[in-house]
Amino acid sequence: MEALRVEGLTKRFGGVQALQEISFSVEQGERLAIIGPNGAGKTTLFNVINGQFPASAGRLFFLGQEITTVPTHDRASLGLARTFQLTSLFLNLTVLDNILLALHGTRPSRFQFFRSVHSYPPLLQKADELLGILELREMKGVPVKSLSYGEQRKLEIALSLASNPKMLLLDEPGNGLTTAESTVLVKMIRNFASDLTLLIVAHDMDLVFSVADRIIVLHYGKMIAEGNREAIQADPNVKEIYLGIEEPAQDA
Known about the structure:
- The protein has nine helices and ten strands.
- By secondary structure, it is an alpha/beta fold.
- The strands form two sheets. It has a six-stranded mixed sheet, with helices on both faces. Strands 2-1-4-5 form a four-stranded antiparallel sheet, with helices on one face.
- β1 and β2 form a beta hairpin.
- α3 crosses α4 and α3 packs parallel to α5.
- The termini are far apart.
């Protein structure tokens, strides 16, 4: 089943064309990575897909429904979630409190005030489950400000999973992580539910090649390559962009 379809997506900022007629589709459960040098349009693409930026042209479909003009909060309600390059957490609250706030915000009970959190057993159970998936259960009582940066990145991913999304957009999930933390992150992503569709923007090629089923390469807002790990590694355009290597001309 097709989870996402992008048709001729274009985004302009005045005279600057950040995305130029981008078209691709993503199957449900697929792990698709978007790579490219700085300024290629990767985060802009994410911002248009999740509704932060309106598309200048083109169409978007999520689970068969057109969402080109659907507001961001309605896209979230349909099952589209995302993380950001910079963490946005409640640093003075505990890990558990951050998770509970995220869970509470996705449920009708968010309109009910002045009730103890212990009166919501399903929320506590779900919070414990998410903390287990992200290997943060032992830190649930720790203030977020006391966590390492890598642990905060993991917590942010846990918050994005609180709404039970059908598709998760991960924007530079390995940004700022140590090699050891990146290894843990790869393990976590591999353990996500098989029906959760992932769209990943990353500069960390080890992470990309470890988790992606398919890779798309952007350069100056254009798609220049698409394929599996082997195809991308062998693509001459990709080699030239990343390594400055030009393929030798063929003899006539």
